[in-house]
Please model this.
Amino acid sequence: MKPATLEFVKQRFAEYYQRQNLTVPSSLEQREWGFIFFDAAAEVRMRRHMAFADPEELGAYVKSLVPAHVYYSTAYYQTPSAPTMNEKHWAGADLIFDLDADHIVRGPYAMMLARVKEETEKLLAMLTDELGFARSQIRIAFSGGRGYHIHVTDIAVRGWGSQERREIVDYVCGIGLDPAAMLAPGGGETESDLRSDRAGAEGARTGWRRRYVETLRAHLLDLAARDPAEATAYLAGLDGIGKRTAAEFLADIGSLAAGAPEDLLKNRVVRALTAAPGFEERLRDAGARADEPVTTDIKRLIRTPGSLHGGSGMRVVPLDIRDFADFDPLVDAVVFGDRDVRVDLKANFATSLLGNTYSLDAGIRNVPEALAIFLCCRGVAEIAGGA
Amino acid sequence: MGIVLDRKELIKYPFLKESQQLARRHVESLEEFLGSSPGDAALERAKERVVAALTFKKEFQDENTQNLKPELEIASYAIARLLVSCVGDRSLVDRLARYEAERASFFLAAEEPEIRRFVAWSVGIDTGAAAMPVTRYVELVPHLRDRRWRLVNRDVRQGGVNLEPGEIDELIRERIRAIIADQLPLRVPAGICERLAPVTGEIAALQQQQVLEQFGEVREEAFPPCISALIQAITAGTNLTHMGRFAITSFLHTIGMNVAQIADVFARAPDFDPDMTMYQVEHISGRGGTEYTPPSCATMRTFGLCANRDRDCERVNHPLSYYRLKKNIKKKRS
Ligand code: SF4
Model:
């Protein structure tokens, strides 16, 4: 960023922090804080191990120093300002999930945002319907970049170490699924229920046992719909499957897919299929693509809701589950106005913002302030003189 | 719960608060007790417990016929905890915890329903429920290796994990193990450890022998790629992350290398600092009392330590299993 650009962005951020407060996390005095500043001279370095006794102190700090990025610890510490982890004395941590489009798809910003929102919805459904977390204990935040953070503040999870958290994140991601467990008969009902009413019993499958069977069936049906020569070649490429077996399997695939889940694994080809990367990818799609290391790390710093993301100029928006469906980051996370600002765009750039679609050519042009902030923060434009 | 266990029953579950109270009433001063003849008997029995733990003894029936007084029998459990604490090795501690849990589980299987319910309740498990809250379940299972225990493989609905018949017994056993393991090692006064030194010496020797028999001599050519990569990194003078140091040290310790041998590995680094290394190695190998089980492949991956994965890796999910597998293959060939 050139000095003029830096000055412009910093001023706008300052203005924002004059009128808006951060969303203060619970037990503020037990949290560690970290900040990255707009200082162009220094390389990007975080000032951390900070602590604040009350919201006023925190607010005053942010207003006067106007950081580019604001983070706080998901952990609670006895002495959050101590310089080393040991001296901080860890006293628990919220359960966190990070969904970042960068780890999911590549493409235009709006498309990435839409996709990561779907993943977040899947995650929320699993957390509430399956794992049983109360909606009131779940907070969502738009990250200000390309994703969402989920904070589960339930007191029951606070003391968990990485291992307990791993169980949960593996569940939401579908990591370590055992085909035998997934396809085993039963869905919580008795044996005789199963025999008397197979369709009903299958309807009773929930969670991963349902997702797994559905995914496997879809996989089989896709295979059946493929060009036979191609499908045979694919199957014959799997470990231990010959051409002949593959062809026989394909002839049978329809009835197999319609049959009982517990019969599927008896088939050698199905067993090979479920172990192949193609199917594993599909299973990952059936789960939610949360970033595992974030959840298992019990000493993480996370962006503070209510702050601005210095790499996009967007607001880290705190959200309630209720409001999530209607949330559109390209409108709701934009906090700046529409007065004209003259920028020098380094390359062609297309995006939508506040309901307008922009397709801009490189060069000097006037754009609304909100877009100017976005472009400057992303590093694709500088403020042009003479405006 | 309005249940009172009698002394005969308490000896089966010496970790219960009630059992400990009984023993404490009997033993006033530990120093004096250890010098007395009942103390000798209890110490002898404590040693048996630790030896049984080390040798994976699974027969518990005969203990019923022991003619040791219940108070002394329970005291022997407490002394066994002192013994492993004085030795200070984490894997020994884990063995004892596992042994005691299996022993209790053995008796529980044939126990009166209300006593079984009481013991389970004492360790925080409700035997009456067909499902367990997710938040409780994930606290119980991390150390259970079998993949059927992974939350992702369970029938989970509305915040509850359904349990199959019989599984609750396995969870009770695991819970008892975890409670005992978490309490250990105890901070034992140096004077007491000195007094126990003859016995702890024998135990340490037996353990060393056990490890050697289990893994045989150390064979570097059977190391998994991740461990070889770490060793190479050390040799090249790269600064390892904490997790990297932890992974290599705990791995080498588990396959039977002692502190000095492990320090030799670190000594391959150009900027080797003997004091620092000894300190860290001792810490990780259990002197500090923290857990030192080497990380699984999943954890290695999370920390970016799973380097140069090869074909044999597909058959294992733990670097230790890789090592065992490779050694066996090599043995057969040679
Ligand atoms: S798969 Fe496991 S054993 Fe193989 S290199 Fe990775 S961590 Fe090591």
